[in-house]
Queue: 2 jobs
Job 1
Amino acid sequence: MRITALALIILSEFLIGISEAELKVGFYSQVCPSAESVVADIVRNAAKSNPQLPAVLLRLHFHDCFVEGCDGSILIDNGSTSEKTAPPHQGVGGFGVIEDAKAKLENICPGVVSCADIVAMAARDAVALSHGPVYQVQTGRKDGFVSKDKLAERMPDVNDSIQILKQKFIAKGLNDRDLVILSGAHTIGTTACFFMQDRLYNFASGGGPDPSINPGFLPELSTTCPKTGDINARLPMDHGSGDTFDIHILQNIRNGFAVLQSDAALMNDPTTRGIVDSYFGVLSPLTSSFEADFVRSIVRMGRIGVKTGSNGNIRRVCNSFN
Ligand code: HEM
Ligand SMILES: *[C@@H]1O[C@H](CO)[C@@H](O)[C@H](O)[C@H]1NC(C)=O
Ligand SMILES: *[C@@H]1O[C@H](CO)[C@@H](O)[C@H](O)[C@H]1NC(C)=O
């Protein structure tokens, strides 16, 4: 009896071991010691000429991980059915920087560093460049063999209800706290007015704005994104602090200054609202840290559906299968 139980434990640990990612900090430290610094240098240099780049790279990691796992599937160019072209990935970018880093790494240590890991490292560097927390990124992901637009259908959408957003995160093994904290990534970067149209002009059945927008914020939003204006015009998602990675985004969300509808929706549910509020209590400075929690959540996000062993490989270039 005891032996059977022990055997079961060993068997289940073995099964977990092969189904879960074998990621670790410093995966490349022996096999390609300069991997992390090469990526960091390329990201830093590219950000000098494009200040928007850190935000773009952080978003790229999210979109990679939520479809088919963190496996570089979003990087593939394979005609009109590749994942990259799916509507939920609209505006996702940073591909050139990932490709530059890959090219440099293929020169130094060919066939060693995966594109999926480059995306994860670049996101980490992007957060640091934006004055956010400096964290150690786990690596060891392999690149996937699949890239299909249909697989992106279940991406979280800006106009999903809070219930749907929660479900979509749970489906990826992320809880309500991860949803709140990772939405905090909107502390940097911008959105196109395209994503604001429904919130500003078509929210209620008879039209009109989302009533959760602070009346003091509405005129500014509708001036930046007029009803018949340019849907490609952009505005910071963290009003007043869009270049700096900080907790200001959660303060804005609490005060009705959320820009994205999905961020505002965090206040529509007692659990997620409670999590937002927990950063602003009298004792909060002692008990919680947005930065530390963000690190924990993004490391968890970086483990979604990771491919190891023969489920993946190391691409030679990131935008096509070997
Ligand atoms: C909760 C579900 C989420 C929804 C519905 C959502 C939606 C959006 C939308 C609509 C934009 C504007 C895109 C554009 O106009 O180019 C955006 C931008 C962005 N998102 Fe999210 N997002 C979510 C979660 C996340 C997560 C988990 C991360 C990263 C951890 C993230 C990081 C970013 C960043 C950094 C930008 C700015 C991109 C830029 O400046 O180009 N988002 N998001
Ligand atoms: C590439 O696209 C073609 C045409 O749509 C498709 O048949 C094929 O399965 C795709 N390749 C991969 C590996 O996804
Ligand atoms: C939800 O937002 C998308 C843009 O992300 C828009 O294309 C779509 O029409 C919206 N759906 C609804 C039901 O409002």
Note: Confidence is low (pLDDT under 50) at residues 8-19.
Job 2
Amino acid sequence: MNARLGTHIESTDAQHPLIALDHEVAAQNYAPLPIVAERAEGAYIWDTAGRRYLDMMAAYSAVSFGHGHPRLVGALVDQARKLAITSRAMHSDQLAPFLAELTRVTGLPKALPMNTGAEAVETALKAARKWAHKVKGVADGAQEIIVFDNNFHGRTTTVISFSSHASYKAGFGPLTPGFKSVPFGDIEAVRAALTPNTAAVLFEPIQGEGGVVVPPAGFLKALRELCTQERVLMIADEIQTGMGRTGRNFACEHEGVLPDAYCLGKTLGGGLLPVSAFVSTAEVMDLFVPGSHGSTFGGYPLAARVGLEALRVMQEEGLVERSERLGKLLRERLAAAKHPMITDIRGRGLMVGVQLHTSVDAHEFVEGLAEIGIITKDTHRNTVRLSPPLVIGERELEWAVDRFLQLLDDMGGLPKAA
Ligand SMILES: *Cc1c(COP(=O)(O)O)cnc(C)c1O
């Protein structure tokens, strides 16, 4: 479709032989855009036909530093030649320096390295349950964790057990008990859900997959106070919001709040590897003893080296301030258009969600964007996410906004009821 747009890209590649092969041999647990990526650099991705796309989703923040960041690739290659994997059967010269920097940057003193985000969340859940049992004296098996409606914390069996989305859970029972879900941003609902058995509140400071939802001002601060008062762990899942994405090192900093624990991932791998971590207090972390938890790859030398370099790049290249400044520019430019098909613009820094009028299908809209050279995905609430690599140029960003608005004109028609 959309030859009428007169754009530099005629069509994406639904008939590509590699897409056909994918349908034959790959589990179809995703519905990707019909683009076959071949290489990438900075904020751009090229497909197998040499067509160039601006990456406006950065792999859900995994590519915050841009594709193929030279410093990060350099660290990866150098470390791969020296020492890549040891298992935790011995120490490596890379792990402790990485975790030392992670504790310094987060302000929390101890860290446990894992690989994927879901594993960091699993680690947090185990830590919270153990802490409630050992420190608060809650009977083992009675621990409760409060979460929020429309959360996204990953895809393991326990994590989907407290998802609000039926499709994440259907057919995967029996599910893990011990979770209570309350409306996001509602401090009174959290208070009402507390019991003597509550171990923790697990939350995203901005819900990403839930549609880029920012909680009401003061919520994080109130949650901090409530958790301290009630002796409950405040666990921030900053796997998507952390490391500069929202214009702060961590999104909790928008309200000057330090949680009892962070789950980190995505950006921590520098756009090159899956690297995640659970970071917390000594009181919590010292409950882990040999045999209580682990992962063959968690904290392997290659990951540790890249993770350390990622933390340094975040601080030394001004990407956090850049995210704040460009995010503001992006939201202002979109808002200034006063486009009738845009019903809401949410987010902080370069984590932006643009909610479209119900007469425009966000899913069709992102397919249209791909055809004109912009890659992103829609998310819940008919929302298009705009979360490019933090290294994106101002001109690229403005180009993307112009294209975005133009496509809305072309696809929009008039609202059904004006
Ligand atoms: C992506 C994400 C996860 C899961 O990370 P994976 O690496 O996909 O397992 C967890 N929490 C949040 C907030 C995320 O955005």
Note: The longest strand covers residues 342-348.
